[in-house]
Every structure is written in C-alpha cells, then in structure tokens.
C-alpha cells in the first residue's frame, strides 16, 4: 500500500479490471500501427478529447483564435464519450494526441503494457464542487450514511470523491456510491433528490439557489494536488510525429495563457454560446471565472513528478494499479519543454 492513503479504499469491480486488461491488449497493436498523420506532410494533427461543455468551449475558442495556424498546423478534433475510447484511438493510430482529458486510467493501462506517455498538463485544478440538496448536509462528515452519485469505480467522479472523503477520514463503506454517469447526470440526480450528494462542474456554481442545492465542498481547494487533465499520446506517435505533437502542445499553451487572462472573457462567452447552444450565460461566466484562478490551467504545460506520484498513489490505494511506476515510464515532458520554447 502506498504511503499517504488509507487502506479502506473502494476496490475496482471485475468489469473495471477486465477493461484495463483489454486496453493493455490493444497496446500490442501499436508496434505495427502507424500514427494517425504519419502519411501526411507534417502540417496536420488529429486530436481526440472527451466531450464535456468546458472541453467543447476550449476547442471552439482555440479555433476562433486561430492558434493552430500560428504553429503552421491544421487540426481535426474528435470528441468521444469516455477515456477508454481515447486510449484505444491513440493505441491503434487513428488519432495523434489527446489534450483535455483526465488520465487516472492511463496509468494502470501503462502498467499493463500500453505504450503511452503523458506529455503535459492541461487543466490542473479540479473544476468540481460537491453539491447537496438537503440543508442537513453541510460538511463531509454529514455525508456518512448518505448516497453519493458518481461515475463507475476508477472513473474521475468516483476517484475524486473517494480521495475527498479519505482526506476527511471517511471510509468508502461509510457511504453508498451510486453509478449515475457524467457530471451533468450527477447534478440532475442531486437536484431531483435521487441521491443525497455528488460532484459536478462549477458551471452551475453561481446558480445554486436556482436549482435548490448548495456546495458542500469546493474540490479545487480540498484536493489541489489532484491533476484534473493532461495531454497524452502513444510512444509510436512520439517516435514518428514528435514535431507535430510539440507544435500542437504550443497551440494549446497559447490557449491556456489566453483563457487565464482577463482579456479572454468576451471571447470565452461567445465561444461558449456557440459550442453549447441555448445554454445559460451564467454557466459560461462561472467557468470563465474559475479559469482566472492562479494554477487552474498549465500555462507552461508543466506537470511535475510529485503530481504524477499522487495520482499513482491514489490508483494503488484504490486497487486499480499494483505499484507506483518510474516517472520516465509514464511521462515524457521534453515535448512540453520544446513547445514552451516556441512561445
């Protein structure tokens, strides 16, 4: 057991273990596969991300600011529903890179043989709060004996709740976890009273009264050591497409610096309206305000060894990873360093 985490963490289901094993088996294809753009001329990149509102807005803002053209690239971006699809598309060579994704499940996949590397940080701070409907739930201690909506074991929402409760000295078996699905689905379940509490994005943070809920905890403050998102790719892509990957990271670094500045507000709100039609403008404002916090985004793409060790320790404590792997086995930060030199 890794030092610093209690022994009473929720264990992964058989389905979770089998899923990670399947990812490792896909890794065997990378030796004979080809990176997505390997047959191209070095001026295009294929990117795959998940599809949360915040991700869609950043992609729209990236396009509106023409950051890829500044690094002499064109980009095709695909959005998928979960991290396992991200990993599979990188390993089979259909995409070059993912830039806005949680990477907790990447680490055990690497342990099981997947030829992947984490190459930079993206969103560093968790953009989540724990919401509850009942006025009787005011703190983490009030969650004991209650139902908590999350995603499946090993996924982001479940992992951050287990980490938060552990930090407060609460064991997983002292609450009842319910697999609801996405962040938005969890919030709807809290509002409807189907669960007592659950983590969801800060886009609804300024509208708690409207929905009849309140924030029990601000996870970006409670778990600042937890890295929300990073960029990762395959070893094959690094070997064959390194220059394209570096330039892609440079484009995103420009985005992170821009979104972290007060000058980005109007452009961000406009991008949100386009990316998420018929949305509430207050939700866009909440996400933009969150981005103004120092350290919210990796403006220098840096993701240090200590942050990755924390994520591995958490995986080991939850039983989805057997041991902490050497930094060089899971990460290659030289691409991020080269990208920053372009700015």
Structure write-up:
The protein has 343 residues and is of the alpha/beta class. 43% of the residues lie in helices and 15% in strands. The strands form four sheets. The protein has a three-stranded antiparallel beta sheet with strand order 3-10-4, sandwiched between helices. Helix 6 links the parallel strand 6 and strand 7. Helix 1 packs parallel to helix 4 and helix 11 crosses helix 12. It is globular and about 55 Å long. The N and C termini lie far apart (42 Å). About 8% of the residues have low confidence.
SSE order: HEHHEHEHEEEHEHEHEHEHHHHHH
Radius of gyration, taken over Cα atoms and rounded to an integer in Å: 19 Å
Strand content: 15-25%
- Most strands sheet: 3 strands, antiparallel
Question: Termini separation (Å)?
Answer: 42 Å
- Total beta strand runs: 10
Mean pLDDT: 89
Helix content: 40-55%
């Amino acid at each position: 057991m890794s030092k610093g985490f209690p022994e009473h963490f929720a264990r992964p289901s058989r389905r979770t273990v089998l899923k990670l094993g399947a990812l490792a088996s896909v890794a065997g294809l990378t030796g004979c596969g080809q990176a997505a753009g390997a047959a191209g001329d070095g001026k295009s990149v294929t990117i795959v991300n998940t599809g949360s509102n915040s991700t869609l807005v950043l992609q729209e803002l990236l396009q509106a600011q023409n950051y890829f053209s500044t690094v002499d690239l064109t980009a095709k971006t695909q959005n998928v529903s979960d991290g396992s699809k991200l990993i599979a598309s990188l390993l089979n060579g259909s995409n070059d890179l993912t830039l806005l994704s949680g990477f907790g499940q990447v680490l055990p996949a690497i342990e099981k043989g997947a030829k992947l590397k984490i190459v930079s940080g993206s969103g560093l701070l968790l953009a989540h709060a724990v919401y509850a409907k009942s006025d009787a739930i005011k703190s983490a201690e009030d969650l004991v004996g209650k139902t908590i909506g999350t995603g499946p074991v090993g996924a982001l929402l479940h992992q951050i709740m287990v980490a938060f409760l552990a930090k407060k000295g609460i064991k997983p078996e002292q609450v009842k976890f319910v697999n609801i699905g996405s962040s938005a689905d969890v919030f709807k379940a809290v509002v409807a009273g189907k669960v007592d509490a659950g983590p969801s994005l800060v886009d609804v943070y300024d509208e708690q009264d409207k929905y009849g809920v309140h924030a029990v905890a601000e996870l970006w403050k409670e778990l600042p050591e937890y890295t929300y998102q990073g960029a990762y790719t395959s070893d094959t892509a690094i070997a064959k497409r390194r220059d394209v990957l570096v330039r892609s990271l440079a484009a995103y670094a420009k985005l992170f610096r821009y979104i972290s500045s007060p000058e980005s507000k109007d452009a961000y709100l406009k991008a949100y309206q386009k990316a998420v039609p018929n949305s509430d403008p207050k939700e866009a404002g909440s996400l933009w305000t969150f981005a103004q916090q120092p350290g919210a985004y990796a403006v220098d793409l840096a993701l240090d060894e200590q942050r990755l060790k924390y994520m591995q320790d958490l995986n080991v404590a939850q039983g989805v990873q057997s041991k902490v792997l050497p930094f060089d086995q899971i990460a290659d930060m030289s691409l991020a360093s080269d990208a920053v030199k372009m700015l």
